[in-house]
């Protein structure tokens, strides 16, 4: 099997693995592990994402060194990871020991994480910038053009997979919220009919039962839907 065919099959397997990741966190972890296994010269890999407030946070890494690299950049407020998020798509650093672009970051990354070479990619889908994928090496000049090409493809797969996983989670959460609201509404209707109370009073009965029993509101509502009455431990609330 030629190297090109083998590589294509590896990325096909990656695409399937990422597509079946149950959560965004699983997808992120799989990307970091795959980066180390696939990109020549990569000893460590980490992912940082932009949160809803615009802050950059580390969310996944293949090990301690990768976590340190991201952590140092966030602490000093400079580094190639932040650069690809805000200014460029790809940033390669041959040797942090001699690179003068981010002195505060480079000095600490070499001393604390034992990292010399870095390769960073922006994670994005269309105009949505998710964050950055950072690959690092313990030796200088570890990443050649082939590594850059592989990393670029990997970053594209990662961004699509993470977006897909995030959207699936949002859909699941929305579906759960809708089911919960339906169950609570049904339970309130049952309590209104059983106790001849208003909708607001029915909700108060449900909420009081939830608080007294230290159970989630939806769980108490499901009991009401199943039995037609409040759980035994909370029925006193309906009689007050």
Largest sheet: 5 strands, antiparallel
Mean of residue pLDDT values:
89
Approximate helicity band: 55-70%
Q: Quickly count the domains.
A: 2
Count of helical regions: 9
In CATH terms, what is the fold-level topology of the largest domain? Beta-Lactamase
Order of helices and strands: HHEEHHEHEEHHHH
| Widest sheet, order of strands | 2-1-5-4-3
CATH A-level architecture of the largest domain: 2-Layer Sandwich
Number of strands: 5
- Given as residue ranges, the uncertain stretches (5+ residues, pLDDT < 50) are 236-240
CATH superfamily of the largest domain: GAF domain
Rough shape?
elongated
Give the class from helix and strand content and strand pairing: alpha+beta
Description:
The protein has 240 residues and is an alpha+beta fold. It has two domains: 3-169, Beta-Lactamase, CATH 3.30.450.40; 172-239, Arc Repressor Mutant, subunit A (Orthogonal Bundle). The chain is 60% helix and 15% strand. Helix 1 runs parallel beside helix 6, helix 6 (145-195) packs across helix 8 (217-227) and helix 7 packs across helix 8. The longest helix has 51 residues, at 145-195. The termini are far apart. Residues 236-240 have low confidence and may be disordered. InterPro entries: ANTAR, CheY-like_superfamily, GAF, GAF-like_dom_sf, GAF_ANTAR, WH-like_DNA-bd_sf. Residues 164-225 form the ANTAR domain. Keywords: Kinase, Transcription, Transcription regulation, Transferase. This is GAF and ANTAR domain-containing protein.
